[in-house]
Amino acid sequence: MNPHIQNIILEATKAKEISETEIIQNLWSDYGKIIRCSLKGSRHNSIIVKHIQLPDKNNHPRGWNTNVSHQRKLKSYQIEIEFYKSWSKYCKTSCYLPTPFYLENIDTESLIVLEDLNDSGFSERKTFVNLFEVKLCLTWLANFHACFMDKAPKDLWEIGTYWHLKTRPDELKALLDLPLRDAASAINKTLNDCKFQTFVHGDAKLANFCFSSDSKKVAAVDFQYVGGGCGMKDIAYFLGSCLSEEECEQLEPELLNFYFKELTLALKDKNTNIQPQDVEREWRQLYPIAQTDFHRFIKGWSPGHWKINSYSERVAQDVISKLKNK
Q1: What is the per-residue pLDDT for 205?
Q2: What is the pLDDT of residue 59?
Q3: Does the pLDDT at position 64 exceed 50?
Q4: What CA–CA distance (Å, rounded) separates 299 from 120?
Q5: 3-state secondary structure 261-312
């Protein structure tokens, strides 16, 4: 770690010394690193540094090395900084996320210094979850959506999620499912035109949730694709990230009921004029459309992906049929 960054960390955390550094992971396509720094002389035992550095050459794991892909990634880091700078302070403990200590975006480098969630009691990362833990994440998402309901996503993605159609022309072109490709614009428009808009996390997969050791609390990270949209995008994507095909189909009614119950409580707690039943009435109908929107992306991006299954195919075919008959 270069001396300039070390000095930034020491000043931002009031630490006397960085005693140890540990690389947690490389960023997608080698765009930098996420590092944990152990501190001495600070009230924080450790902090997380997300250091974005443009690679000498693009190295996408699935071969999408295009300028569109490169520009999308650059913008995503700028947006993450803006979210932490301007919007994260509105999130309550019910949608806990790391506190930012330092944010900088200069030319080809960006630096994000954050609270270490491990140090704050969210030390567990899970690859498999039980039903209680799934619902814990749905509660987080319900509160996040309630927090930003009807807010304009200033300086964020106008339309959130990393698979948004406008930012994925290459994947659409590669999509061999012609009925799905032809329906892509209508699916996108239906979601974008819904009355009730919020901020979506945009990459709400299980890997971006951090659990307490007793699995009774959860926090979230990675806000590169936060922006405006229908909350059902996050829910469809999250459930698809942690449930099997059979679980998605069997548990969907129970989990949607739970999410909307939590959203109702969160909206009432916010003392907003928005009627929760009106949001639920609109968004429930949009859930399969949100599922199909992601299905469209994944089928063009990686046709052999495990998330493409008979259930997602059936949902997509039903959505396409209904859109045709509108």
Answers
A1: 97
A2: 53
A3: no
A4: 38
A5: HHHHHHHHHCCCCCCHHHHHHHHHHHHHHHHHHHHHHHHHHCCCCCCCCHHH
Q: Is residue 273 classed exposed, middle or buried when 0-12, 13-18 and 19+ CB atoms within 10 A define those classes? A: exposed
Taking only the tens place, the pLDDT of each residue in 46-63 is: 999 999 887 655 554 444
3-115, which class in CATH? alpha beta
What is the Cβ-side half-sphere exposure of residue 51, based on CA atoms within 13 angstroms?
17
pTM of the model: 0.93
Domain extents in the chain = 3-115, 131-324
CA-to-CA distance for 150 and 112, rounded, in angstroms?
Answer: 28
Q: In sequence order, what are the residues at sequence separation of 6 or more whose Cβ sits closer than 8 angstroms to the Cβ of residue 121?
A: 212, 213, 217
| φ and ψ at residue 134, rounded to 5 degrees | -60, -45
- Domain spanning 131-324 has what CATH number? 3.90.1200.10
When pLDDT is cut at 50, 70 and 90, the band that residue 14 belongs to is very high
Closest Cα partner for 77 from 106, 98, 56?
106
Residue 250 has pLDDT above 70, yes or no: yes
- C-beta of residue 288 within 8 angstroms of C-beta of residue 296: no
Q: Compute how many other C-beta atoms are within 10 angstroms of the C-beta atom of residue 132.
A: 9
Interatomic CA distance for residues 99 and 70, integer angstroms: 28
Instruction: Please say if the pLDDT value at position 123 is more than 60.
Output: yes
